Amino acid sequence: MCICSEVYFQVLSCYLNAHSGEITMRDTNKRKREEESYYIQAVTENSTYQQSGSTVSPQHIQTPVIEQNPAYNQSLLLNQPIIQNQQLLYQLQRSSDTQQNLVYLIVPTNENIQVQSVPLTIVNDQQGTVQYIETSQLTAQDANQTENTIILENIKEEETEDKPELFVEEDINCAEEENIQYSYSTHQNESKQNANNIGSANSGYSQAYARAISSSKDNINSNRPHWYHCDYKDCSESFYSLYEKKQHLDAHIFPENSEFKCSICNMVFEKAVDRNKHVESHAIPPTYKCKQCQKDFSYFTVLMKHLEEKKCSHKNPVSGATRKSPILIRTLIGTSIAKMSSSTFETLHVTVPKPFVYHVELHRPKKRNALNEQMWKDISACFSGLNNNPDCRVVMLSGAGKMFTAGLDMNSAMNLGPKVAEQDDVARKAKILYPTITLYQEAISSMEKCCKPVLSAVHSACIGAGVDIVTATDIRYCTKDAYYQVKETMIGMAADVGTLQRLPKVIGNQSLVRELCFTGRELPADEALSSGLVSKVYDDKESLIAGALKVAEQISELSPVAVQTTKLSLVYSRDHSVQEGLDHIATINQYLLQSEDFLNAVLGQMSKEKVVFSKL
Ligand SMILES: CCC/C=C/C=C/C(=O)SCCNC(=O)CCNC(=O)[C@H](O)C(C)(C)COP(=O)(O)OP(=O)(O)OC[C@H]1O[C@@H](n2cnc3c(N)ncnc32)[C@H](O)[C@@H]1OP(=O)(O)O
């Protein structure tokens, strides 16, 4: 760990209430300081932290600086400045098999982030009081009696002579160290690579690290107070700083190529640090309160999960009986959201991966997402709901399983046959088919009519009705293995739910449109890109979803008034003359330029501050 000049470290004391398991951390530094900022990161092993107390609000929880380690259940970083003597309260719930809870306090003492880690070994205090011992004064006897003791490592003074001889300040570029601190790898290989990277121009930290390690081997018994030993199984590595030890420790736990999943939206990341950044993006102020149990949630999606899982039950005031009720969702966030839960649709899976971003998945993977009667209805209901849903600002549409969609469900379509056959007269037969065709048309048009931008993310096949769908979306992306097929002529029909009307306007190449529609040939991703059907091709589904989500997120952060009006005008202008389009937008903007969004957005641009727009 870099020890730069003018660094002084704070001593934090911890009090543990044995009965409630509540830990209070207080700044007890005796030095006089004006309001200095501290960052506290708490990492617990085999424990969960629940935040409580009014001094810390959930929106101050940010992605931890140190990557989350699956061995630890929770890892929180508070970026709230802690004013002297201010209390931070955590509820520490220990599992019965917990041997030890590790709490790392990272205490930057000034703007340049002179970070020092303080390991606290917290064990139950039977007396309800806490003893803490500065590790430098820790005797072997103390070490054996840590059962009822909180050990607070003394980091107040780092004696220069205690450093390894080769571990000199000049070796360390603080900025570089900060960089490493924020993005360090969890893989042992990379750590080792760093350590071996001695000759490279930017390897100050690595050199110091390597030398610290090699030096540590020579000095392992030198009785220096700041050596940290790896306590993982039989490993006996020693480290000069806790950070290095932790970095090393992670290598034991993370196998190479391990994946990190977002617990909120299940998105998978290669690195914990990316996952953590992503998780942060789920949080938006203000926090969400469940009206039933008054529980606060910092993530909207977690609240949704809470409601969906019906963890929260209504109590009948007369009988005292409890019942689970989805009404709760409605009272909380409006009827439209209640309709949006994945359980509401048989054939669609709806999630909210980011604030204001809805992800609709065609979800009949076993039938290759073929559109049966139910799916047509679900699509209509879903997009009409999203149109009116103030919590939705943008929609991403994709397909579950092997492909985007195999198009019209042939079995479902065949069911119409007997009904038609019942009638002898052609006009009466037609009367049966007409509502079906218009129902299907409405479903496709509901995406275009939805005032929120819809992004389609296509992987593998997008056949028949799939092309109708994507041409009704606003932004189209696909994977490189994707192909589009206007297959209707191959099954003896003319496409009738949008392809013939929209595809020519989307790609603007009549010749290509006609070739595709007449022949039913597959249009591969590269041609889809060059013809303008899609605007970006991704390597695989994972990067496709991540890329589309990123764009969706950008859209969701902008003024919903501006975005929705823009879509309205673009769709209108596509079907009207330039003058009609201009008249249309002039009529709209004479009102909407008076909206708070316009003022706030302009002020935000001028002050370079991020504007959070209210719901529309
Ligand atoms: C008023 C109407 C307006 C709308 C008009 C729309 C028209 C169209 O959409 S035209 C296009 C119709 N679609 C097709 O022609 C595609 C037919 N399917 C296939 O060619 C293949 O299934 C496909 C290449 C998509 C996938 O092949 P894969 O080997 O991966 O899967 P399969 O083993 O063939 O299928 C797996 C199960 O899915 C069922 N399935 C696939 N497509 C459809 C479909 N279009 N309709 C109904 N069911 C479909 C298939 O039967 C398999 O089911 P199971 O046997 O029960 O396992």
Automatic annotation (TrEMBL):
<comment type="function">
    <text>Isomerization of 3-trans,5-cis-dienoyl-CoA to 2-trans,4-trans-dienoyl-CoA.</text>
</comment>
<dbReference type="Pfam" id="PF00378">
    <property type="entry name" value="ECH_1"/>
</dbReference>
<keyword id="KW-0479">Metal-binding</keyword>
<dbReference type="InterPro" id="IPR045002">
    <property type="entry name" value="Ech1-like"/>
</dbReference>
<feature type="domain" description="C2H2-type">
    <location>
        <begin position="288"/>
        <end position="319"/>
    </location>
</feature>
<dbReference type="InterPro" id="IPR014748">
    <property type="entry name" value="Enoyl-CoA_hydra_C"/>
</dbReference>
<keyword id="KW-0576">Peroxisome</keyword>
<keyword id="KW-0863">Zinc-finger</keyword>
<dbReference type="InterPro" id="IPR001753">
    <property type="entry name" value="Enoyl-CoA_hydra/iso"/>
</dbReference>
<dbReference type="GO" id="GO:0008270">
    <property type="term" value="F:zinc ion binding"/>
</dbReference>
<comment type="pathway">
    <text>Lipid metabolism; fatty acid beta-oxidation.</text>
</comment>
<dbReference type="GO" id="GO:0006631">
    <property type="term" value="P:fatty acid metabolic process"/>
</dbReference>
<keyword id="KW-0276">Fatty acid metabolism</keyword>
<dbReference type="GO" id="GO:0051750">
    <property type="term" value="F:delta(3,5)-delta(2,4)-dienoyl-CoA isomerase activity"/>
</dbReference>
<dbReference type="GO" id="GO:0005739">
    <property type="term" value="C:mitochondrion"/>
</dbReference>
<dbReference type="InterPro" id="IPR029045">
    <property type="entry name" value="ClpP/crotonase-like_dom_sf"/>
</dbReference>
<keyword id="KW-0443">Lipid metabolism</keyword>
<dbReference type="InterPro" id="IPR013087">
    <property type="entry name" value="Znf_C2H2_type"/>
</dbReference>
<keyword id="KW-0413">Isomerase</keyword>
<keyword id="KW-0862">Zinc</keyword>
<protein>
    <recommendedName>
        <fullName>Delta(3,5)-Delta(2,4)-dienoyl-CoA isomerase, mitochondrial</fullName>
    </recommendedName>
</protein>
<dbReference type="InterPro" id="IPR036236">
    <property type="entry name" value="Znf_C2H2_sf"/>
</dbReference>
<comment type="similarity">
    <text>Belongs to the enoyl-CoA hydratase/isomerase family.</text>
</comment>
<keyword id="KW-0007">Acetylation</keyword>
<dbReference type="GO" id="GO:0005777">
    <property type="term" value="C:peroxisome"/>
</dbReference>
